[in-house]
UniProtKB/TrEMBL annotation:
Pfam families: Amidohydro_3 (PF07969). Residues 40-400 form the Amidohydrolase domain. GO terms for molecular function: cytosine deaminase activity; isoguanine deaminase activity; metal ion binding. The keyword tRNA-binding does not apply. GO terms for biological process: cytosine catabolic process. NCBIfam families: PRK07572.1. This is Cytosine deaminase. It comes from the Bacteria. Keywords: Hydrolase, Metal-binding.
Amino acid sequence: MFDLIIRNANLPDGRMGIDIGVRAGAIAEIAPTIAAEAGEEIDASGCLVSPPFVDPHFHMDATLSLGLPRMNVSGTLLEGIALWGELRPTLTTEAVVERALRYCDLAVSQGLLAIRSHVDVSDPELVTVKGLLEVKEKVASYIDLQLVAFPQDGYYRAPGAAEALERALDMGVDVVGGIPHFERTMDDGARSTAALCRIAAERGLPVDFHCDETDDPNSRHIETLAAETIRHGLQGRVAGSHLTSMHSMDNYYVSKLIPLMAEAQISAIPNPLINIMLQGRHDTYPKRRGMTRVPELMAAGITVGFGHDCVMDPWYSMGSGDMLEVAHMALHVTQMGSIENKRALFDAVTVNSAKILGLEGYGLEKGCNADFVILQARDPQEAIRLKANRLFVIKRGKVIADTAPRVARLHLEGRPEIVDGASYAPIAQIDNQ
């Protein structure tokens, strides 16, 4: 007897017509046919069943604050930072908690059940830290929320930032953050990288830096981050987020940089929606779009996970908490259009990002947590094409969100009454499963 059986599911690895049996919140059996009964059954009807979406880079302390205290008129990164500097002194813990919880509701509806959020520690009162630690506790039963101590205004540049970061870590923040390219000099950026990696090594914590989020090809802090990772024995525990300067670097330098990153086992976290919106602002034409070298990083064996970064905040007025929208944009800007490419992009918002966060029990194998999203699509590439509807979101074997199938009714003589976009999967693609 199972608590739940999902029947006739397609899996991201290409397996089709699979049953998944759940008992006590974990996957107890996964097979073409499970000849047993369950307290609840869901017929996936050939739809894709995936582990939950994972966002490895977000700013939950700022989310849903769009328009406070005013709009970002220029749409630039620097005006967004200035706006956040105006808003930060007015923040209350209650406001941070309320907005973050609302975003978590949206995330659950999108099947997004694990998030790594950077938390600004530039405020000596640590209002955002207090707020998001409270949120982390409140959502623990349905969202894995990791927090990064992020010195938004610079570890050395902002007075008191170093001490505030240590206090945030003492309070229970999970990850050491940094922003070396925002320090006053390249030398200060390198020094901050060394200091923060040393702190992480001493505390046994992971590292996740905003690194080289600029069009400047001479911003090469990822090189320093890789070297410090090796020096402190942090291999496999460090991520470089954004890495947009790599878009502008010459190929010879990158041919040395990527192997160094691979040696250091650094993960890369591009943020496609925000990167292409904020970068290249000083260009006329040709105009750079600021995405790092995703295909080359993947080819080198570097774990690449995509972040949403922002939703309706001083930096980005768009966003919906939909990680398939993130993958969809990444596909276009990286020109990764093959079937294999699309599967890799789907991995970048699921299994790769779960690996970056170090999530335990994540996946679709026996013994893994019974955490699933059932998508109104046949396979990963169709899920990205359609930005597929989430039919069911399941946490530890319990349905925590559901959405009716997305269909349209036609009123045309001689034509079908119902149109389901998911039924338009190309035959050649189906045969290639």
